[in-house]
Amino acid sequence: MSSRFRIAGREILLKFFQSLFGSDATTGSYPESLVKAAIERAVDGTDPWIRAVSGYRKKLRPAVVRAIDYVVALVDGLAPAISMDAGSYNSDPRLRTYFISGADMSKILAVDSNLLNFIRECGPPLPRVNALLIMEKQEKLAFGAELSGDMVLRDVPQVVVSFESHRLFDPAGNIEKTRLLLKRRAFDHLLRLALARITIVKTERDKLEHRRTLLQSKLNLLQRVGWGFDRIDSGEQLDLADLEALLGRIETQLLELGGDDGMLEVYLDIVIDVLGKPDKNLWSRQETLFIDHMGIKRSEGAAGASQVVLDMACDSEGRSLVVSLVDISGEWVQNGYRT
User: Fold this and answer.
1) What is the mean pLDDT of the chain?
2) Which of 3, 4, 95, 258 is most buried (CB neighbours < 10 A)?
3) Residue 335 belongs to what H/E stretch?
4) Shortest CA distance to 313 belongs to which of 274, 276, 277, 287?
5) Who contacts 178 (Cβ-Cβ below 8 Å, separation ≥6)?
6) How far apart are the first and last CA of the chain?
7) 224-251 tens-digit pLDDT
8) Exposed/middle/buried for 282, CB within 10 Å: 0-12, 13-18, 19+?
9) Residue 170: left if φ>0, alpha if ψ -120 to 50, beta else—which one?
10) What are the beta bridge partners of residue 311?
C-alpha cells in the first residue's frame, strides 16, 4: 500500500478519535453515534460473538463511556514533553538517566521502527516529531567502592538502575495528535486486557470439556465391565465412586460457567468489568529516583545524585513501564542525529 493511502487512512482514524476523545466533548457526554462506534470497537476488539447477547449495546454503554472519560484524563495528565535535540542530552538530567550517552540516545532513535515509518510517510521537510517514549526500568544489585570520609570502602552493595528496550509510540507532527493517538492506544489496551481474561476463561472451559469427555469415557468403561479398572493416568488411582465424584465436580464447574449461550454473557461481563473499572486495570504513578552519573541509586540529598521523577504506566497484568512524552527536533533528525 502506498504511503499516500496509509496517510489517508490514518487521517480518517484521527478524525474519528478526535471526535471521540477530543477536548471539546464534555466528560460523560458524547454524540450517540460515536458512543455506538466505540461500543462496536470494544466488541470487535474482544469477541464479536458478544453481539448475539440481547441488549449488548445498552449493557456496554456505561462502561464504554467510563473508559473513554478515564483514558482522556489519563493521557491529558502526562507530564509535558521532553525536548530532544543535539544539545538536550547534556542539559536534561532525565535524558542522562534514560540513556547511557548522547550517542546512545541518537542511535536508539535512528533505528526506532515507528519513528522511521513516520519519517518515510511525512517526507522532508520534517516537522518536530512528538511521541511517547517507553522504557523498561531494571534494578540490579552490584558491589562497588564508596568513599566514607577518608576511607575507601570496597564490596559495598549498590543498586544499579538501567533503562532498556526504548521505543517510541504514536509519533506525530504535534503533541495534540500524539495525545489523541495515545488515548486510542490506552482504550485499546483495556480491550486487550479484557480479551486476555476472556481467553483464560475459554481455555479453562476447553480443558474442563476435554477432562469431562475423558472421564466420561472411563466411567462408561467401568460401568460396562463392572470391575476396578481404576487407572485414570499415571498419577491417579480412582475407584468408581471417586470417578463419579470427580466427574460431578467438573459438571458443577461447567454449570457455573454456563452453556455456550451463557458463556457469551460471561464474556460480555468481563468486557464490562474491565472497561467499567479502568483505574483497576490501567493506571499511572510517579516514582522519584535519586541517581548518580554511574547509574547508582542513592538516597535523597546524596552528593552527585540527581533527582528524577519517573512517570510509570502500570496495568493489572503486572506491567510497569517508564513513559515520557518527547518532542524531537525535526532538523536534528534530518541531520542524522549529529551532535
Assistant:
1) 82
2) 95
3) none
4) 287
5) 130, 131, 132, 170, 171, 172, 325
6) 35
7) 544 444 444 444 455 667 766 776 776 6
8) buried
9) left
10) 286, 323
